[in-house]
TrEMBL record:
It catalyses: Fe-coproporphyrin III + 2 H(+) = coproporphyrin III + Fe(2+); heme b + 2 H(+) = protoporphyrin IX + Fe(2+). Belongs to the ferrochelatase family. CDD domains: Ferrochelatase_C, Ferrochelatase_N. GO terms for molecular function: ferrochelatase activity; metal ion binding. This is Ferrochelatase.
Amino acid sequence: MQKNKKALVLLNMGGARNKDELKMFLTNMFNDENILTINMDFLRSIIANFIVKKRLDSAWENYEKIGNASPINPLTEKLVNKCNEKIEEFKTYQAMRYTPPFANEVLEQIKKDGISEILLLPLYPQFSTTTTKSSVQDFIGNIPYEGFTVKYIEEFYKNDKFNDCIVDEIIRNIDDEKEYNLVFSAHGLPQKIVKKGDPYEEQMNEHVEILSKKLDEKKIKFKSINLAYQSKVGPMKWLEPSLEDMLKNFKDENVIIYPISFIVDNSETDFELDIEYREIAHELGIKEYKVCRCVNDSDGFIEAIKDIIK
Ligand SMILES: C=CC1=C(C)c2cc3[nH]c(cc4nc(cc5[nH]c(cc1n2)c(C)c5CCC(=O)O)C(CCC(=O)O)=C4C)c(C)c3C=C
Ligand SMILES: [Fe+2]
Ligand SMILES: [Fe+2]
């Protein structure tokens, strides 16, 4: 029994620990009505199966290049452990959307621990229906009876302590002698979803503005500060400019990438940014190409969490 403690549940996407789990990840993701916005479950599941069949082998090749697993699970685990060391008032748990540990198992554990008050913190700084809403809806939908009270954080991109962590990481990557183009790289989203009212793009623009102002106040100068979108999947129109098009502007120049959609490193940072786009940057004649780390379980981010949940 955890006397007087509340539960803090970090929500994240999950990721593959092996090829079977990649199949599970993709199957659960493409059956999510927030991702494939097709109303009929049956039709969505046929399309999901088709996409998974087509995508699995080629996607797995990417995971083979980062040690046969996504880093998202061990890094989220580390963050949970550090929260449990440093945040007294809460017992911290994690629940993933597409791979274990799923919400129902976590709820069982919270019940066993004798806790009834739950605060959900989706590990997405900007709100999107495809991430935040999907995770919160899934968690709340798994609550088996009325004995729990649940609150959730919708977004935290305006949190000053969080933004200090991002700025510190960017500064850590700068060599004072050189001039850089800073690119905030966000995970993309189909334009159709934004047109239906998803606030992700608007919040992303605002987040970049807040961070640019903070860098300027600290007198950190860049040749340019930009926002671009990575990770397009399928034939639909996604948010623009794409990271690939953005990089074309920087032949013979230096580039620093900050992965602005993520809290812990994952396959999109370790493979896509650090391997795939690094090769593209090299082919485009970019001089220096650096990728910042996400905030992960840094002391600064733990302080930011305390501030976000207070
Ligand atoms: C097809 C639609 C997708 C939408 C919409 C989407 C939104 C979205 N995703 C993230 C964060 C992550 N996505 C990750 C992997 C990933 N995403 C998609 C598709 C969509 N994402 C796929 C198919 C995959 C798997 C990899 C691949 O096959 O390309 C991950 C990485 C998980 C890991 O394994 O480490 C993250 C994190 C955000 C923030 C977002 C919208 C705001
Ligand atoms: Fe994604
Ligand atoms: Fe990707």
